[in-house]
Amino acid sequence: MKTIPHTQIAETAVTCSTCAACCCQLEVMLITDTGVPERFIDTDDWGGEVMLRLDDGWCAALDRNSMMCTIYEKRPLICREFEMGAPECIDERQGITTAYR
Ligand code: SF4
Ligand code: SF4
Questions:
Q1: Residue 10 C-alpha to ligand 2 middle, in angstroms?
Q2: Which InterPro entries match (predicted)?
């Protein structure tokens, strides 16, 4: 039997630097005080504090040009624990592939 040569195509590495901040469209509850500025805080239907999201769906603290967090040092605990490359991250990336830069 003839063996057909093939080339293994490397999977695209998962990295925030090539991602359109997909996870920054999720609702982020503020469960600890990390110093998020008031102007970025909203109240949900149950009275809990969440990160404000703008009409385009992204977090108000996201810089739309760089797609980087403008309050990185003060970002909420949930954002700190959202792990790059984790199943949740992969899910979010697959959800809005058209937004990749
Ligand atoms: S954690 Fe994942 S989904 Fe969030 S910006 Fe980084 S690569 Fe994108
Ligand atoms: S606070 Fe920063 S890391 Fe968290 S959702 Fe907003 S922009 Fe993303």
A1: 30
A2: Puta_zinc/iron-chelating_dom (IPR005358)
